[in-house]
Specification:
Number of strands: 10
Radius of gyration: 19 Å
Largest sheet: 4 strands, antiparallel
Distance between the termini: 42 Å
Structural class: alpha+beta
Helix content: 10-25%
Order of helices and strands: HHEHEEEHHEHEEEEEH
Strand order of the largest sheet: 7-8-9-10
């Protein structure tokens, strides 16, 4: 819905609008669905995403951007010149189609951790990072209700405007990825065998951006509600 609203307001495709308004001003070499915004270098350095069995899942580009950055029409055509902005912003995968390097993802973390006012006003930053929603403890299907700890195995406990707040140590909450009961904010990623994350400590302004691929859907969970693979990655950073 938000992507379609952005298109209606700007008159541009979602990927082009975000490239012009956000990614380029922040000097990020990133794009949605390998569409508008990514350089030839980014395409050449694309990471192939694999399933846990070794099969290719996504982005085996072989150095060339895909001919169609969206799901083609039923007849196989991909004439985006006919696309009417605002008709279907989800076509460009705003919910998870961003292709970005870990260096550039870390850059976003630096901007947010340092409260860069050229990107967000002080008010916008407060609204973005304060807990707008918090889950209530409860068994699955019990008094916890929709989004209760029991509904997500204690993974989703507190959320701002698009940012997850973790490490509160609240009873029944298992979102302490780093295992040190320190509050952090950021976002987790899960798609096509990929697990990723951007997390920073708002007090120290230090953080980490990471990804790991070929993770099975039933990957073992660690001591938290995150996978053991993710916990092992952040443990290396803390050494």
């Amino acid at each position: 819905m938000v992507a379609s609203i952005i298109e209606r307001v700007t008159g541009e495709r979602f990927d082009a609008a975000i490239s012009r308004l956000v990614l380029k001003p922040l000097k990020l070499d990133a794009c949605f669905n390998w569409g508008a915004g990514c350089s030839a270098d980014a395409v050449r350095n694309a990471v192939v995403l694999y399933r846990a069995n070794g099969d290719v899942e996504r982005d085996d580009l072989k150095g060339q951007a895909p001919l169609c950055p969206v799901v083609p029409a039923q007849d196989g055509s991909c004439d985006l010149s006919r696309y009417q902005p605002g008709a279907n912003g989800s076509l460009f995968s705003p919910q998870g189609g961003l292709r970005i390097s870990m260096n550039d993802l870390a850059r976003i973390g630096q901007i947010l951790a340092n409260r860069d006012k050229t990107f967000l006003s002080a008010h916008s930053y407060r609204e973005l990072t304060r807990a707008q929603w918090q889950a209530k403890p409860g068994p699955k299907g019990g008094n916890g209700g929709l989004g209760g700890y029991g509904e997500s195995n204690g993974f989703f406990c507190s959320y701002g405007l698009g940012l997850q707040l973790i490490g509160s140590g609240a009873p029944g909450c298992h979102d302490d990825l780093f295992g040190d009961r320190t509050r952090r904010m950021g976002h987790s990623g899960e798609a096509y065998g990929l697990r990723s994350g951007l997390w920073w400590n708002p007090r120290t302004k230090r953080g980490v951006a990471f990804f790991t691929s070929a993770v099975p859907d039933d990957a073992p969970i660690g001591r938290s509600a995150f996978t053991a693979r993710e916990e092992a990655l952040v443990a290396r950073v803390q050494r």
